[in-house]
Design a protein that fits this description.
The protein is mainly α and 134 residues long. It is built from seven helices and no strands. It has helices at 4-29, 35-50, 53-61, 75-86, 90-97, 109-123, 128-133. The longest helix has 26 residues, at 4-29.
Length: 134
C-alpha cells in the first residue's frame, strides 16, 4: 500500500501534462480543426483553463522552485492547486475526461479528441499506422 501514493502522484502528473499538451495542441493547430468541433472544443478547453491546468503543470509539475515565493511549494499549496483541477469530486472530473460507459461524442474529452483525430486522419488521408509512426 505504501507504493500507492507515489503511483497516484505520477498518474495525476501524467494526466495534467497530457491535458496541458492538449491545450497547447489547440493553441498551435486550432486553424486545422473543422468548424463542427470548434464550439465543443472551446467549451472543454475553457473548463481546463478555468481549472488552471497549465499553471499546475508549470508551477507544480514542471519546477521544483516557486519563483514568486522564492522557495519550494509545500504540500498544502500543491494540494490546494490540485483541488482546483480535480474539484470536490475527483471521480466526476475523471469521468468528464474519459468514461468508458458513456464515450459517445461529445460526452467526454477523450471522445472529442478521438472524433477529431479520426476526422483529421480521414481528411488528410493518414493511415492509422502513419499516425503512430510520425
Amino acid at each position: 500500500m505504501v507504493q500507492m501514493v507515489p503511483i497516484q502522484k505520477m498518474c495525476v502528473s501524467h494526466l495534467v501534462l497530457t491535458l496541458a499538451k492538449w491545450l497547447e495542441f489547440y493553441d498551435r493547430y486550432h486553424d486545422l480543426i473543422p468548424d463542427t468541433y470548434r464550439d465543443e472544443i472551446k467549451r472543454k478547453n475553457k473548463i481546463l483553463n478555468d481549472k488552471k491546468v497549465r499553471h499546475f503543470r508549470n508551477v507544480v509539475i514542471g519546477h521544483l522552485w516557486d519563483k514568486d515565493k522564492k522557495r519550494p511549494l509545500v504540500l498544502s499549496e500543491i494540494m490546494s492547486r490540485l483541488e482546483i483541477i480535480l474539484g470536490p469530486k475527483p471521480g466526476e472530473f475523471l469521468k468528464w475526461i474519459n468514461d468508458p460507459e458513456n464515450e459517445e461524442y461529445p460526452n467526454t474529452l477523450v471522445s472529442v479528441v478521438e472524433a477529431l483525430r479520426a476526422d483529421l486522419m480521414n481528411k488528410y488521408s493518414i493511415a492509422p499506422e502513419q499516425a503512430i509512426e510520425r
